[in-house]
Amino acid sequence: MIDENDRHSLVDYRLRQATETIELAHFLAMSEKYVIAVNRIYYGMYYALTALALKNGFETSKHGQLIGWFNKEFINEIKKIL
């Protein structure tokens, strides 16, 4: 478990990491390096989702658990509204 200062710093770090990774993906796509661009897009989204999870008190290093958490906390809630 991390303290609130470390959590805030880690959220900021993950958001910067997401932004840089998506910027790289854009560059790669413009260079017609589509397979690598898709990989970078995936990781950019992963870093952003990690920041969201940390902000909401959820911690994991597993991609599947993170996606499951997101589906449960956000997607399923949207489905209930619709």
Summarize the structure.
The chain has 82 residues and is mainly alpha-helical. It is built from three helices and no strands.
How would you portray this structure in words?
- The chain is an all-alpha fold.
- The relative contact order is 0.12.
- Helices cover about 85% and strands about 0% of the residues.
- Helix 2 (about 35-55) crosses helix 3 (about 65-80).
- The protein has one domain (about 5-80).
- The protein starts with a helix and ends with a helix.
- It contains three helices and no strands.
Poorly predicted runs of 5 or more residues: none
SSE pattern = HHH
Domain module tally: 1
**What structural class is derived from the secondary structure elements?**
mainly alpha
- In whole angstroms, how far apart are the ends? 35 Å
How would you classify the quaternary structure?
Answer: single chain
Separate helix tally: 3
Give the amount of beta strand, in percent: under 5%
Q: Taking all residues together, what is the mean pLDDT?
A: 95
Question: How would you sum up the global shape?
Answer: globular
Strand count: 0
Summarize the biggest pleated sheet: none
Tell me the helix content: over 70%
What is the rounded Rg?
15 Å
